[in-house]
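Deviations from the work plan: none for this task. Representative record:
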Amino acid sequence: MTAARKRDDVAAASALITLEGRLLDEKRFEAWLDLYTEDAVYWAPAAIDQPDPDNHVSLFYDDKPTMRLRVGRLRHPEIHVQTPASRTCRLISILEVGGDQGGDGYKAISNFILVEYRPGFEQRLYAGTYEHRLVRKGNDLKISWKKATLINCDAAFPAIALPF
Amino acid sequence: MAAIGTQELQSLVKPDRIHRRVFVDPAIFDLEMARIFGRMWIYVGHESQIRKPGDFLCTRIGREPVILSRHADGSVHVLHNRCAHRGSKVVTQECGNTKRFQCMYHGWTYHTDGRLAGLPMQAEEEKDGFDFSAPDFGMRPVARCQSHHGFVFANLSPSGPSLVEAMGEARHAFDEFVAAAPDGEVELAGGCHRYEYRGNWKHQLENLTDTYHTVATHASTVAPDGTQFKRRTGTKGTDVQFYDREKRPVILDVGVTVYPGGHSSTESLFPEGQSGGVWEEYRALLAARHGIERANELLTQKIHNLTLFPSFDLLVVQNAIRVILPIGVDRTEVRIYPVRLKGAPEAVFQEQVRYVNLTHSASSFVQSDDLEAFRRQQEGVESDAQEWCLATRGQKRERYDNRHVGHGDKTTEIGQRHQHQAWLDLMCAE
Ligand code: FES
Ligand SMILES: [Fe+2]
């Protein structure tokens, strides 16, 4: 891989992951869904070093139809756990971009801090690592797989309504 | 502890209502820890979680930290997690494998059955005449520990009915749950979901037998055609019908059965059972063992969940268990463990794991709104504007048979009334 290509990949990954965070924080959930391929997986393990989502429970293990359902529910007027709705703000820092996947895709690893405030509740703080698998679709870069591992993913949580 | 008298307790529970105080008074919570969690069979773990000698896990019985362990000889023990020396909590890891438990403070070590193994400078003290083999120098075992299909329950009280006696009429549904495993055995294998809420533990308990709340609480999970999201693969029994074509809330038709001892079950939301896809392979495996008639019976679940008072729930439809761990009068933790039916196709287990994420994790479509309800209940009852919480529904339509098993039809609150009575009986026993 040329240095120029590598630079482009880092810039594109960084732009996409930053945009994803922003769309979630701004509750533009439909636009968020559009960042994902149709065969995408969104996974948040419930244990550190959890090997797979098939034989162990996860906080999130969504395929695209499930992600759509989740967004549909977030738009539902009677989603009580988001009445009133939370406000979120996340900081993302890219750590590493690489792992050429046969030329049309690659991986990105980043750390995140997510602050959630829901009126009437104490402010909540999440921190962890994102792993994204990104694929080129024509001129677009899309997310085909995302894993969000919280540092306390095996803790007992109050209700969680929003994706990380 | 200033004792709360029997009369005072009786004034808190009426046949169709319960006083707000039982959810908010720390003195009531203290008494519950002594008279309910201190005297009843409390689930601590499954034997499959401590398969090998030296395996252990830590949990609580009420507020009491305990260790479930497998000793070198294969025996199962439940020990108070407290050092005999000067009282430190000995084990802080959630689970693991060890030859001995060692207290960090002065280094006393214990065998995995609780007996003292040794201590620094032991010989000198023995010269002084101490006999370290006396029980006083070991980690104290919990008074009683019994298991049913590998589910270990412990009891802090040395007297009272056995585990099976305490389950009584509710036992049948428990046994049927396990019989649905082609090998006749189950194990915990998929980790656990944990959630917590700022609210009393009884909000969760009452909710387990609440067939009245679904339409309101879970409105956001229902599609315009009246069905909920898909919970399983296959052709039948895949998603829950909330409304029929005439927009009638058919989900509210579900009834509740109560059993002596405060236990209860709710009718299945999938009365036709499930079929198609991997379920046919599963059915064939069951049929090979029991014949097709029994296989069909086992795959047509009659009950949705079975709740053993005070803190254990079998989610029959999800193949999971739920355990309530009270933390304080207004703080509760709950854990959900998927159960693997041994001998069933791998895909059945993986499907259960996948769907329990959607129904019962902290981030699920269903449980998250129940958690919102528990928190709001707590905020509501913390106000003394009104004294009572009502559980009046279906009182005129409930009926009991000669085994004292009761049944209420749609949207009944027989389950809550029954739990309140069991609670009162236990709390009033000196
Ligand atoms: S308190 Fe445990 S060894 Fe002293
Ligand atoms: Fe519910």
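The interface with chain B takes residues 44, 46-47, 50, 53-61, 66, 69-70, 73, 76, 78-81, 154-161 of chain A (CB under 8 Å).
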